[in-house]
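Proteins fold reproducibly. Consider a sample protein:
=====
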Amino acid sequence: MAEQIENPRQSPRAPVRCDARVALREGGFWITPTRDYGPRGCQVLAPSALAPGARLFVELLNERVDGPVELAGRVAWTAREEPWRTGIAFDDGSLSAARTFFERLVAAYPGVDAYGRAPERVAAGAPLAPVVPPTEFEPRLSPDEAEVLLAIGAGATAGEVRERLGARWADGPIHALFSLLGRRYLVPGGPDEQAAAAWKALLGARK
């Protein structure tokens, strides 16, 4: 059977900015915007590397949603180097409130739940290629998504992208790969030089 790369994210995430106040169980807190948010977890920037399993308490606010939501969770993963991107998995007792908040975000930002429509897995040898970026709006990309698009170029297999990004792969690019598939910025198929050139020009203009 061909090797499969599993999508590590088992629930949808929306690329919506929320203001997060994150407190450690041991004491201390920091304020940061979320990188994304879903009914089972979110991603934030931390001031330092956090140990997986560490307990956290999160208060989230969004300008289009009434009132804050208070959630408890644990560190699911932390990047191996700065910036200290950190994934938080919510506790079972917070899932009802987290899902309600997610539904309100989706209602306030129509279409953001498209991030959750990524496949559960992709064959390591499956050819992937970019599509031409939209012209009616400027797509918002995370640094990891931009890195994956540049690594794919005109086209590459998921396994090749994993090899090109090396040790960084599990820190964020694997999530970005499935996010790009969910957003249909990447599709199965042969190379597309025109799309690759368009993305390279767009990403280069942002530097």
